[in-house]
UniProtKB/TrEMBL annotation:
Broadest EC class assigned to this enzyme: transferase
Known catalytic reactions: ATP + protein L-histidine = ADP + protein N-phospho-L-histidine
Name of the protein: histidine kinase
Keyword hit for Ribosomal protein: no
Keyword tags: ATP-binding, Kinase, Membrane, Nucleotide-binding, Phosphoprotein, Transferase, Transmembrane, Transmembrane helix, Two-component regulatory system
Organism superkingdom: Bacteria
E.C. designation(s): 2.7.13.3
InterPro entries attached to this UniProt entry: DUF7134, HATPase_C_sf, HATPase_dom, Sensor_HK_TwoCompSys, Sig_transdc_His_kin_sub3_dim/P
GO molecular function, one term: ATP binding
Species name: Nocardioides seonyuensis
Record field: transmembrane: 20-39, 64-83, 104-125, 137-155
Classification via PANTHER family: NITRATE/NITRITE SENSOR PROTEIN NARX-RELATED (PTHR24421), NITRATE_NITRITE SENSOR PROTEIN NARQ (PTHR24421:SF10)
Residues of the Histidine kinase/HSP90-like ATPase domain: 297-387
């Protein structure tokens, strides 16, 4: 049973935040100014209006709003020695500057609030008509006001820290998503390159066999029609096999079951040898019997290396070349294909796709491939694939 999906935290939209700030400032303005109007406190009305009005833009200009509110509160302490309803704007402004301004702005607002708590307490006690201002009377007010300002600052700082943390998580998630997309792209490129190598091996091998058989059938058609018919049948079988391999490769590009046979491996090497001998190649093969179980990827690489090496013999070694094939399986797979043909000059100095594909296949499994002139003439391909 899948876990229940968690709802995202409820948040105000950008437009609703502006509406909230307007309603907050408007509500405090109406209550504060109305209250002072009822008791006939004109200075209280004025200072309340001045302190509350800047809260409308407390999100977009928090530091400026705090400076205006703190300045109005300082002016009030000099002119009006009684608390006013607009005094509630100070902790709101402190929260705002700690929430949306740089960290040092919030620390500065906290220090200003602590100093303001002492000044306001001293002024208010005198305004309350106390005959003497003592520290015993001032301290409770200072502690209360400082606690309110500190709480507002702490809440704003915590909210800013949480927002930065969430922003960091979002950034890391986006970075991880970009890296995943890049890895998918690189994997797709590797897969395209692998399929290109597979297609090269299939097409080159199949067509080389068909070309040799077609040339033989053309010459045999005049003297031995039955041999020509057999050769044409071999061409058809080779073509069908190549088409089957191509369908399998194209099936890799589709999802789901393709309905084609598995990829070839060591067990298919005898068929490859028989196919090469059928087109007239003099091939001496030393293959493992019975064929041991090896990983599919390594078996496919060994098969393709042998297939490409035999294809190159047909294409470059010249007529009448004899080939020796040896495949041994122990702690690793050793492949050796040596011919006595025309030598390395006909292999285009190893720059063809076939030799490059061999090396790439071997390197994919931590193996190596060496290809070059053989001792006494001809060309040799040796590969080692660790198991």
């Amino acid at each position: 049973m899948p876990p229940p999906q968690q709802r995202p935290p409820w948040r105000l939209s950008e437009g609703n935040r502006r509406v909230f700030d307007v309603l907050l400032a408007g509500g405090l303005f109406v209550l504060g100014v109305g209250g002072h109007l009822v008791v006939g406190d004109a200075p209280g009305m004025l200072f309340t209006a001045v302190q509350v009005a800047p809260l409308v833009v407390r999100r977009s200009h928090p530091s400026l709003v705090f400076v205006l509110v703190a300045g109005a509160s300082a002016a009030q302490a000099l002119v009006h020695d009684l608390p006013v309803a607009g005094q509630v704007a100070f902790p709101i402004a402190t929260y705002s500057v700690a929430r949306w301004s740089p960290r040092w702005h919030g620390v500065g607002a906290l220090l200003v609030g602590c100093v303001g708590a002492l000044v306001a307490s001293w002024s208010w006690i005198g305004g309350f008509g106390a005959p003497e201002i003592t520290w015993d009377a001032v301290v409770p007010y200072v502690v209360t006001i400082t606690a309110i300002v500190t709480t507002a600052w702490a809440l704003g700082t915590a909210a800013q820290t949480r927002e930065r943390y969430v922003a960091g998580l979002v950034e890391r998630a986006e970075q991880a998503e970009r890296m995943a997309a890049r890895e998918i792209e690189l994997a797709a490129q590797d897969e395209r390159a692998r399929i290109a190598r597979e297609m090269h091996d299939v097409v080159a091998h199949g067509l080389s066999v068909m070309v040799v058989q077609a040339d033989g059938a053309r010459y045999a058609a005049e003297k031995d029609p039955e041999l020509a018919v057999e050769t044409l049948a071999t061409i058809a079988d080779t073509g069908r096999g190549a088409l089957t391999e191509m369908r399998r490769l194209l099936g890799l590009l589709r999802s789901g079951d393709t309905g084609v046979r598995p990829q070839p491996g060591l067990v298919d090497l005898p068929h490859l040898v028989e196919e090469a001998r059928a087109v007239g190649m003099s091939l001496d093969a030393d293959l493992p019997d019975p064929v041991p179980d090896v990983p599919e990827g390594v078996g496919l690489a060994a098969y393709r290396i042998v297939q490409e090496a035999l294809t190159n013999v047909r294409k470059h070694a010249g007529p009448g070349a004899a080939v020796r094939l040896r495949v041994q399986v122990g702690s690793d797979i050793e492949v050796e294909v040596v011919d006595d043909g025309r030598g390395a000059s006909s292999y285009d100095d190893g720059r063809g796709h076939g030799l490059v594909g061999m090396r790439e296949r071997a390197a994919l499994h931590g193996g190596t491939v060496s290809a070059g002139p053989a001792t006494g003439g001809g060309f040799a391909v040796s590969a080692r694939l660790p198991l």
